UniProtKB/TrEMBL annotation:
GO cellular component: plasma membrane
Transmembrane stretches, start-end: 144-166, 201-218, 238-254, 266-287
Composition skew (Basic and acidic residues), residue ranges: 10-21
Name listed for the protein in its UniProt record: Uncharacterized protein DUF2510
Localization in the cell: Cell membrane
Taxonomic path: Bacteria, Bacillati, Actinomycetota, Actinomycetes, Micromonosporales
Any one Pfam family match given in the protein's UniProt record, by short name: DUF2510
Annotated region (Disordered), positions in chain: 1-127
Start-end of Pro residues biased regions: 37-66, 81-106, 113-124
Top-level taxon of the source organism: Bacteria
RDD domain mapped to chain residues: 138-300
Compositionally biased intervals (Low complexity): 27-36, 67-80
Domain DUF2510, chain residue ranges per copy: 5-38
Membrane-related topology note: Multi-pass membrane protein
Length: 324
């Protein structure tokens, strides 16, 4: 199969990497540890050619006419000057002046095979990991810790706001739960149904889920829209950026990103379907290549990056002799 254009390890020198355009190598090699540019390398400037001096007369021989050297294509020699001899100025035949067995010309480009060089088992070298906006992708462990911190913050908010509703819900559910625990403790085998829960149990459950979802939305969406970071992401030095630009997410994109992960909270009461959807969304980043996007990242076209430990200063010192 054909190899897509990109930066790969140079087969001739594994310590360097070069750009493969699908048919041949382009540009000069760069160190293997260096970060290559986003596209192909800039074209190399052509070396300046110095004009060849006109041949002078041989010692003791007749003067050489000025029109005898190799003339460019389409040049007519002035009258009285002889034309160049046949084959004079033409390209030498293949292999001329080279030892026997020396290959002549560039390597043959093949569109259905790997780049020229030693054969590779499956892929020519290790693919270069993308760096969106010049920043490395966030690791799975750092993203998990940041999410757990955010869950702890939202849970603390629910303890404060949802405490009364949870207390009333436990009171409504206490008759069937107490009866079930009594039968298990006494090892009773009976087919009698459990006593029903209170009349307000279903309403309280929906109210609790609505309040929990609203608290999560109010905690995450505004901070992601303005800074691309929640409290957990700031602790772990992570940031969410759009794939296409380094600008803030904005409220619309932040809301689309949260909807995929946050709205299934309303389905927790339905046999845990909401929790299952959130689990699938959370682990989807483990199987995505190359940007490690979860389902909510794909919907909003965002990517999670790792910020450097020390911020890069944006202001450079003024040159000597100039006031800032």
């Amino acid at each position: 199969m054909s190899v897509a254009p990109g930066w790969y390890r140079d087969p001739a020198d594994p310590d360097t990497q070069r750009y493969w355009d699908g048919e041949g190598w382009l540009g000069a090699p760069i160190p293997a540890e260096a970060t290559p540019p986003a596209g192909p390398p800039p074209p190399e400037p052509e070396p300046a050619t110095e004009p060849r001096p006109a041949p002078g007369p041989a010692p003791g021989g007749p003067p050489v006419p000025a029109g005898d050297p190799v003339a460019p294509a389409g040049y007519d020699a002035p009258p009285g000057h002889g034309a160049p001899p046949p084959g004079y100025g033409a390209a030498p035949p293949p292999g001329h002046g080279m030892p026997p067995g020396t290959p002549v010309g560039p390597y043959p480009a093949s569109a259905s095979g790997p780049p020229p060089g030693p054969p590779y088992p499956t892929w020519p070298g290790r693919p270069v990991e993308p760096r969106p906006h010049g920043l490395p992708l966030a690791g799975y462990g750092a993203r998990l810790v940041a999410r757990l911190i955010d869950i702890a913050v939202v849970l603390a908010l629910n303890v404060v706001v949802n405490f009364w509703f949870v207390q009333q819900y436990i009171r409504e559910m206490s008759p069937p739960v107490a009866e079930l625990w009594s039968r298990i403790s006494n090892q009773e085998r009976t087919t009698e149904p459990l006593p029903p829960a209170g009349e307000q149990a279903s309403s309280l459950q929906i109210a609790i889920l609505l309040i929990a979802t609203a608290l999560w939305l109010a905690y995450e969406v505004p901070s992601m829209a303005s800074r691309g970071q929640t409290f957990g992401k700031r602790v772990m030095r992570l940031k969410v950026l759009p794939v296409s630009t380094a600008a803030p997410l904005g409220f619309g994109r932040a809301l689309r990103r949260w909807n995929t992960l946050g709205l299934p909270t309303l389905l927790w009461w339905c046999c845990g379907i909401g929790l299952l959807l959130q689990l699938i969304d959370a682990i989807s980043a483990l199987f995505d290549r190359p940007l490690r996007q979860a389902l909510h990242d794909k919907r909003a076209q965002t990517v999670v990056v790792q910020l450097p430990r020390t911020p890069v200063p944006h202001d450079r010192p003024a040159p000597p002799g100039e006031s800032p």
